[in-house]
Design a protein that fits this description.
This protein has 205 residues and is α/β, with parallel strands linked by helices. It is built from six helices and seven strands.
Length: 205
């Protein structure tokens, strides 16, 4: 049975375009593979705490060396890692904010990027351990950042592709919902383009 991991990160609730398109895309994937399980994290509604001194200490220790607070902190990270490793398909959704991803998504990444679990260091350099997955990124933006003069300010996609590859995930597709601030016609065009892209990707999955 296949497993889909959906992580949305916008704090905009029902107004979030990245969340809307990501959810619709997962519905299309699920329709194609009805027996697939879906694990969902809405980080806008239920953010994962950013790493603190307790969590940072806990994830660097063996389980038997952790105190009660460290064990609780590590349990959250361990659960998130297990979900990622179990997933065949990963869908990440974020808006472009200050040229990068939402901090809620960054917190999720900080919890799943774990030495010895999703990557390891070797004599030949770091090696990703979360391999064999298809990843889709849904990125919404008011302007146009997939091409043109503003492309150099899009740090979200290069960062996500880098950290995903570091963990072993190199098969990545991007779905843009962009140019939404350029009036009603541009808004409708952005939504239609994103939906067409998700349909194409769902059919190819």
């Amino acid at each position: 049975m296949s497993s889909i991991l959906l992580v949305t990160s916008s704090p905009r609730g029902d107004e979030s375009l990245s969340t809307k398109i990501a959810n619709e895309f997962v519905d299309k994937l699920k329709a194609k593979t009805p027996d697939a399980t879906v694990v969902t994290h809405d980080l806008g509604k239920n953010p994962i705490p950013h790493l603190d001194t307790v969590t940072t200490s806990a994830i660097r220790k063996p389980a038997e060396a952790r105190n009660a607070d460290e064990a609780a902190a590590a349990a959250t990270s361990d659960k998130l890692v297990a979900e990622l490793l179990a997933a065949d398909t990963v869908v990440l959704a974020t808006g472009l904010i200050n040229f990068n991803i939402y901090s809620t998504l960054k917190s999720w990444i900080d919890n799943v990027a774990r030495a010895g679990m999703t990557f390891r260091y070797t004599a030949e350099g770091p090696q990703g351990l979360a391999t064999g997955k298809k990843v889709y990124i849904v990125l919404s933006a008011a302007g146009i950042y997939s091409e043109g003069p503003a492309m150099v300010m899009n740090h979200a996609i290069p960062y996500l592709k880098t950290v995903l590859a570091f963990m072993g995930m190199t098969d990545v597709e991007v779905i843009y919902v962009e140019g939404t601030a350029f009036g009603p016609e541009a808004f409708d065009k952005a939504i239609a383009s994103a939906k067409e892209r998700t349909q194409q990707l769902a059919l190819a999955a």
